[in-house]
Design goal:
- This protein is mostly helical and 231 residues long.
- The protein is built from 7 helices and 2 strands.
- Helix 1 packs antiparallel against helix 2.
- The longest helix has 72 residues.
- The relative contact order is 0.12.
């Protein structure tokens, strides 16, 4: 990737250098060249080439420097935005878990009341009318970490799945996850462009004095616990 970037930047520099060489030849022909001269007069031999490529070098460097600074600011901005979205996503997931916890407590109290009234230790109920299997109340706590898990949970309970506010919460979690995913992609895209740019000629020659260093791509740290593996 870096070798391709250097090759591309050199090609751009050479092309711009030849173009500016022609511009300098035109300038010299209109300024210091006599009208009766057959060839363009230059201040010294090869002046057009030297001035042309010098201007190309300066222009290319200024453009790359400004682009690198702009990308650097975008990386900082996207990183800050990503952290804000992660915080909002965690808050929404926490709200979903608190809703689940409250619902489970209500379920437990209802089952206890039914058990006392009917002298039955365990009550069974249908999970859905469309399903032919039964679901038995469990004392195990449910902890969701994504919109999919939350959606699966509320689908088991019509009183939750038909609640408009619960649907809004689920939609908000889905949106936050989409924003989070898009932000990660955009951040890594900016980092890729930045790392490629600072290795292009001529900025690559001065990137260390200017403190342009490669930035690490965003990577999600996933911790695999024993509980996840069921061991």
């Amino acid at each position: 990737m870096k070798s391709k970037s250097v090759f591309k930047s050199v090609c751009v520099f050479v092309g711009l250098g030849f173009l500016l060489t022609i511009v300098w030849l035109m300038i010299f022909s209109m300024t210091i060249t006599p009208d009766d001269a057959e060839m363009t007069v230059e201040p010294f031999s090869g002046a057009s080439v030297i001035f042309g490529f010098a201007c190309a070098l300066i222009a290319n460097f200024i453009y790359q420097y400004n682009s690198a600074k702009s990308l650097e600011q975008r990386i900082y901005s996207n990183t800050s935005s990503l952290e804000s979205i992660k915080i909002r996503n965690r808050d929404l997931i926490d709200k979903a878990n608190r809703l689940i916890d409250k619902h489970q407590k209500n379920e437990k109290e209802s089952y206890i009341d039914i058990a006392k009234a009917s002298s039955i230790k365990k009550e069974e109920r249908h999970e859905k009318n469309t399903k032919d299997r039964l679901k038995t109340y469990s004392d195990e706590d449910v902890l969701v970490t994504s919109s999919q898990e939350f959606g699966n949970f509320i689908n088991d309970f019509p009183e939750l799945s038909n609640n408009q506010n619960v649907k809004i919460l689920l939609d908000e979690i889905i949106n936050s996850e989409n924003y989070l995913s898009n932000s990660k992609i955009e951040l890594n895209r900016c980092i890729e462009s930045y790392n490629s740019l600072i290795h292009q000629f001529p900025l690559a020659l001065l990137r260390k004095p200017l403190k342009f260093t490669d930035k690490e791509f965003y990577r999600e740290e996933v911790q695999i616990t024993d509980e996840m593996l069921g061991i």
